[in-house]
Amino acid sequence: MDSFLQVQRDGAVWTVTMNQPQTRNALTGNSAVQEFIDLYEAVAHDESVRVVILTAADPVFSSGGNVKNMQRYFDEAVTPADIRSEYRLGIQRLARAVYGIDVPTIAAVNGPAIGAGCDLACMCDIRIASENASFAESFIKVGIVPGDGGAWLLPRAVGMSRALEMSFTGDALSAAEALQCGLVSRVVPHAQLLDEARRLAARIAANPGPTLRLTKRLLRDGQNTTLDALLEASAAAQALAHKTPEHREAVTAFIEKRKPDFDAVRVKR
Q1: What sign has the CA pseudo-torsion 91, 93, 99, 102?
Q2: Considering its fold, how many domains does the chain have in total?
């Protein structure tokens, strides 16, 4: 089977496309987990990357777990311990990898994002939806719980009340409803989705890479710590930022009234 992810590198922006439409871009029963882990490692080790766009081959963003593949759990030989281990070593590693990508991530949601597919979108920092998109935390519909971190991710995206409603009913939100509750930041015509995502990515990538990574880390840490602890972390991150060549270039360019050239600075490092 072909690779699950296709990666297009355009300078500082990587566009990553889930490309198994025949399985509705399911995240289990294939190589998706390992490929997302490999993507995480590649971004971590490549300082030239400043933004990652995650999208999918039409018509579906991701159907989440492969429901047909779940029939194997009916086998009495497969124990609850086996299943627990499979989740911990499988889809949960994908969640850590995608959520943990160092640079800003944009989910360009082209179609239905179902179950773990909805949670995958929530693992990204920014979500832009095609008018064809929909979002469902639908695990309850097949008698299981969100095993991929959705119970942590979704409330942070839409608030606890809406997250509980989505999780208890399994009902889907349209793109317009997702915009209304803050699950996505904008809805665009389907044909314009990638162009819109790339324009936003370019605006982000125009900024210094090391500082983007530090800023993302602070914002993520700020969700799970006290103000005092975050202030300490911010002071430490700021000390690193002030010593980067990119900061020197930005300040110098500001004083000289010119556009900073962060790529030239990075090449010299």
Answers
A1: negative
A2: 2
